[in-house]
């Protein structure tokens, strides 16, 4: 049996194959999927090491303005050619909100001020847990990095382009709810600092 292909940088995430299980860190034998406890897990047939594959945490920011929301056209897979929110993986030990601001800066060259949490998204079989924040541009102009994002534009909510990922429609719906809720709170005089960051109940 041919050894599984190793994923290169930037190729993990939504396309992560459960079969690309690699080699034993203890004895370098090729790992196999074997039933452990409640599911198949990469297991070393030689020394018995079981690899517990952790989820990946990613952050995205819905950057909203009067003209709509800011989207970038993806220049990398998954979703190459389609549009999505600025997003990326959280580093180990990194604060979520700082990762969100960093990803916007890296992909689009602009600074954002984060608003409320929009939601947390996951799906069966998908290793990625996506945490989404509201954001507002506080600098400009937008300059796509050309590597991960080829171009960027503001899109009105009623004429969005082809979006890249499964959660995108739900995220936009939740974001509208979060924005409306925040506007209501501000109108009622509640301090911004007192905003709960919990997932809004629909
Ligand atoms: Zn082993």
Structural account:
This protein has 202 residues and is of the alpha+beta class. It is built from 2 helices and 9 strands. Strands 3, 4, 5, 6, 7, 8 and 9 form a 7-stranded mixed sheet that branches. The protein has a two-stranded antiparallel sheet with strand order 1-2. The N and C termini lie far apart (50 Å). Residues 1-19 and 198-202 have low confidence and may be disordered. The chain binds zinc ion. Zinc ion is lined by residues 24, 26-27, 29, 44, 46-47, 49.
Task: Present the secondary structure layout.
Layout: E1 32-36, E2 39-43, E3 56-65, E4 68-74, E5 83-84, E6 87-89, H1 96-108, E7 112-121, E8 128-137, E9 149-155, H2 168-187
Parallel strand pairs: 3-8
Antiparallel strand pairs: 1-2, 3-4, 3-6, 4-5, 4-9, 7-8
């Amino acid at each position: 049996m041919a050894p599984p292909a190793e994923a290169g940088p930037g190729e993990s995430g939504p396309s992560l194959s459960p079969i690309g299980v690699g080699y034993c860190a203890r004895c370098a034998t090729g790992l196999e999927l074997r039933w452990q406890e409640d599911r198949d897990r990469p297991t070393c047939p030689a020394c018995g090491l079981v690899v517990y594959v952790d989820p990946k945490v990613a952050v995205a920011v819905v950057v909203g303005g009067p003209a709509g929301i800011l989207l970038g056209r993806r220049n990398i897979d998954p979703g190459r050619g389609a549009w999505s929110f600025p997003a990326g993986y959280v580093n180990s030990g990194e604060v979520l909100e700082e990762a969100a601001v960093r990803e916007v800066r890296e992909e689009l060259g602009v600074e954002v001020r984060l608003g409320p949490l929009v939601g947390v998204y996951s799906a069966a079989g998908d290793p990625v847990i996506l945490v989404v924040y509201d954001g507002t541009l506080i600098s400009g102009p937008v300059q796509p990095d050309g590597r991960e994002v080829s171009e960027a534009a503001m899109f009105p909510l009623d004429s969005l382009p082809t979006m890249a990922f499964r959660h995108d429609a739900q995220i936009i719906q939740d974001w509208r709810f979060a924005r409306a809720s925040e506007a209501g709170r501000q109108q009622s005089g509640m301090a911004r600092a007192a905003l709960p960051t919990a997932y809004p109940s629909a």
